[in-house]
Amino acid sequence: MRAPRMKRVLTWLSASLLVMALVALLVFLERKSHGIVPQARTDLIAGLLTLREINAQLDVDVLRSRNGLNNNYDPLQGGYAAAAQLGEKLETDIVAAGLEVPDALSQLRASFEQKFADIDDFKAANAIRLNSLRYLPTLVGTLEQNPQVSASLRIQANRVAAGLFRTNLLIDADASATRQELAEIMKAVEGLPPETELAQLLQGFQTHSETILRQSAQEIELLATLAAVPVSARIDALEAVLEQDFARREAVAARYGNFLAIYSGLLLLVLFYIGVRLVRLYGQLARINLALNDANEHLEQHVEERTRDLNNALAELKASEAHLIQSEKMASLGQMVAGVAHEINTPLGYVHGIVELLRDMIGSAFTPYYERSRALLERLNNPESAAALETMDASLLAELKPALDNGLYGLDQIREIVLNLKNFSRLDRGQHTLMRVEESIDSALMLAKNLTKHRKIIKHYSDTTPQIYCAPSQINQVMLNLITNAVQATREEDGTVTINTRMKDENTVAVKISDNGTGIPEEVVGKIFDPFFTTKEIGKGTGLGLSIAYKIITQHQGSIRVFSKPGIGTVFSIELPVDSSVPQQEEASAVPDDDMLLLEDD
Amino acid sequence: MLANPLEFASTWPAVVARFSADAQMVSQIKSVYGAAPSQANLSDALATYQRSLPEPSRFDRFLRGDASAITADERLGYEKFKSYGCVACHQGVNVGGNMFQRLGALGNYFADRGTPETRLDQGRFNVTRRESDRHVFKVPSLRNVALTAPYFHDGSVPTLEAAVAAMFKYQLGRPAPEADKRLIVQFLRTLTAQSLEKTGNKP
Ligand SMILES: Nc1ncnc2c1ncn2[C@@H]1O[C@H](COP(=O)(O)OP(=O)(O)OP(=O)(O)O)[C@@H](O)[C@H]1O
Ligand SMILES: [Mg+2]
Predict the structure, then answer these.
(1) One domain for residues A412 and A438
(2) What residue numbers bound the domain in which A196 lies?
(3) In this predicted model, which residue has the larger pLDDT, A447 or A326?
(4) What is the pLDDT of residue A439?
(5) Same domain for A445 and A577?
């Protein structure tokens, strides 16, 4: 009980594990066969492009700042933010594309950081230089207005200012001349007391000029550093790495794609095979189902048929058994009756002969005695006695003769009965001979004489019925039973049994036994030929009569049928072939219309 | 706020749809939020943007074209602020905050100060350890500067006037009339956010 369930569970478990493994492999291959999502790839390339743009824009903004073309450093600041943000976005994009984040990216970001730091330095230098440069004209103007300033100094200051402005316009301008001239101007300051306005003016001029020169140099240096920051190269490197990764990924994806194709092909084949098997199984199942359904539907019918068959067989068995018993009974009865008849017949012959002899002798045998007595008496001459003898003689004769005649009649009757008994119970039961049905009816009537005493028996015999080939004792039995039934169904007061015989056609003799008795109710008319069916009291009827009759008639290739109307009467109709050794057509016996007429007539 | 029909005559679904229709917007929003535009991430983006905007001051109103937002003197102060070159360092949207500069670009501030240098005085050097970053500080934003006394990295300068004077001397390296300095201070006061102006201690 437990083991099979365990086994089933295990089977299910392993089956579902197998299916899960197969599906997992499929999913795995499918995942692996994806190349880079095109969107991710374009996003990455676009990101790199934007980085290049930002980088270029930074360079441009640096140069614009250098030349004082930008109002402020916000554009540079914005570039930082954009580049930093893009760097992060690149990383998420790379991860999203399923690639490993390459070192090239962090290197690129480091280079950007470097660049930002350098730009910061540059901005610092640039802001101060530009401020000083902007202040320079004011300074020169103030110098020129100072009366203590000599013309040569004025010219020198102007030359220095021009040189400084040149350095602003031309990055690679040579500043050494300007430096020299500035140094010369400052020599003039040395002699002046530091608190004087001119000294302070010149001091400021120097400070700012030097600041411009210093910061300019620093800016140029920073520009070079900036140019050396390998942002562009790092972007190239990153792009190359990414392209390589893309290619590798595509190659791997293509390989997995091939695997996937082969694998799904195999899976399809397996599925197809399973499908075909399933279809076949379903076909079989459907057929079995159909058969089962059919069997189910017809089972009852089959059972009914079987039951009917069995019932029929049982009934038949009972019938034949009863028939056998009856036949045996009849056979032994017949034998006994025949024996008794035979035994009776011989003494009957003597008795008959003696009584006949007696009757015949009464006249002649007594005459001599009479004559001798009369002569004697006459001799004695006793006329009185003679007269008395005369009268005695006459009355004796007159009484004795008819008595003997009556006796003889009785003996003849006994002889007839014995003959009939012998006839009825012929030992040739099984043996067929020729006999007219009327003979059979008469013997039956004869045997039933006691029964028919109080009934009106009407016989309409045909003159033309031939002898038929039959088993006489059996036919007798049929007739006797039918007549008995008819009599039993009718009343003493008005009971009439009519027996007809006729030729139905040249081969068939028809016998009709009608009565005006109770009739047979419709619901039992179908059962009367069944063995043991009787409506009579127990002990009176066995219910075998009609079933035996049926059997006998059918054995004779004939037919027996009944027409009955309760309250009016019953007609039994028998048809027998003239020669029952020749097979007859069963259905030759259609219901003759006059049967019912006959019933109505009665 | 975008969805407020009184302000923008719009609804969130419409806004989301408008953003979704712009491929560049979608990719930007995706890069930040990792998802397609939605009410949640758009409203977050909006809030962030609003926070990044400086709180408007009278000066901002002036810049946007409201000439009456500042007085004539304050406006003059603005002109001085620009022409003297304060704007070279205190610049951009936040009037500063977008670069580093040496305190004492044109004079030795710490020597003149007379007090010993502290670690704090080393400025960005503390972070980068670059000699060139010694005494370098982030140029502070001058928004709300009138409210943030005392001044400078160490809070050693008590008044705005003193701070401006120091700026002239050490950052610009040039003399200026006291009147100009006062005008500039007046201008600096226009940078106070209007929401803070009432509570602010106006000297
Ligand atoms: N002429 C008839 N009129 C009315 N009913 C009849 C007639 N003939 C037969 N039946 C009915 O048919 C039944 C069966 O008849 P069947 O001759 O087989 O048996 P039975 O007469 O009852 O008994 P058994 O013949 O053995 O004495 C009778 O019991 C009776 O009800
Ligand atoms: Mg009977």
Answers:
(1) no
(2) 125-229
(3) A447
(4) 92
(5) yes
Residues of chain B in contact with residue A131, where contact means CB-CB under 8 angstroms, are: 85, 88, 172
Instruction: Provide the number of structural domains found in chain A.
Output: 3
The answer to whether the beta carbons of residues A561 and A511 sit under 8 Å apart is no
Residues A398 and A454 in one domain: no
More confident position, A33 or B123: B123
Tell whether ipTM is more than 0.85.
no
Domain ends where: A213, A229, A245?
A229
Half-sphere exposure of A431 (CA within 13 A, CB side): 5
Residue nearest to atom 12 of ligand 1 (CA): A528
- What letter represents residue B182's amino acid? R
pLDDT > 90: percent of chain A: 22
What gap in Å lies between CA B103 and CA B153, rounded to an integer? 10
Asked if residue B42 has pLDDT above 60, the reply is yes
A440, A378: one domain? no
Mean pLDDT of B90-106: 89
Instruction: Identify the band that residue B12 occupies on the pLDDT scale cut at 50, 70 and 90.
Output: low
Cβ contact (<8 Å) for B85 and A135?
yes
pLDDT the model gives residue A600: 39
For ligand 2, the distance from its centroid to the CA atom of residue A330, given in whole angstroms, is 15
- A265-318 confidence digits (pLDDT tens): 998 999 999 999 999 999 999 999 998 888 888 888 888 888 899 988 888 888
- A197 has a chain B CB within 8 A of its CB: no
Q: Is residue A514 part of a domain?
A: yes
The mean pLDDT value of chain A amounts to 83
E strand or H helix at A500 = strand A496-505
Angle, in degrees to the nearest 10, between helices A383-424 and A437-447: 120
Of A418, A444, A459, the position where a domain reaches its end is A418
Q: Which ligand has an atom closest to residue A486 CA?
A: 1
Are residues A124 and B136, on separate chains, in Cβ contact within 8 Å? Answer: yes
Check whether A62 has a pLDDT greater than 80: yes
The per-residue pLDDT for range A393-417, each reduced to its tens digit, is 667 777 778 888 888 888 887 877 7
Of the candidates B85, B92, B132, the beta carbon closest to that of A74 is on B92
DSSP-assigned states of every residue in B2-24 = TT-HHHHS--HHHHHHHHHH-HH
Residue A474: the pLDDT is 84
Q: Which helix (H) or strand (E) holds A469?
A: strand A468-470
Residues with CB under 5 A from ligand 2 (ion): A 485, 545
Q: Is the pLDDT of residue A571 over 90?
A: yes
**Mean pLDDT on A364-386:** 73
Domain check: are A175 and A220 in the same one? yes
Q: Which CATH number fits domain B58-199: 3.30.720.120, 1.10.760.10, 3.40.50.1110, 3.40.50.11460?
A: 1.10.760.10
Those residues whose C-beta lies under 8 Å from the C-beta of residue B14, and which sit 6 or more positions away, are none
Centre a 10 Å sphere on the Cβ of residue A546 and count the other Cβ atoms it contains.
22
- For residue A507, tell me if it sits in a domain: yes
Residue B153 near residue B109, CB atoms below 8 Å: no
Domain boundaries, chain B: 12-51, 58-199
Other C-beta atoms closer than 10 Å to the C-beta of A49 total 12
Percentage, residues of chain A above pLDDT 70:
89
Say whether B93 and A89 touch across the interface (CB within 8 A).
no
Residues 6+ apart with CB under 8 A from A198: A146, A148, A149, A192
Can you give the pLDDT at residue A327? 67
Distance between Cα A485 and ligand 2 center (Å) = 5
Q: Give the pLDDT score at B6.
A: 35
Tokens representing residue B119 in the block: 């670690």
The CATH number assigned to the domain holding A526 equals: 3.30.565.10
Q: Are residues A446 and A532 in the same domain?
A: yes
* CB of A425 sitting under 6 A from ligand 1: no
Least CB–CB distance from B99: residue in A123, A130, A135: A123
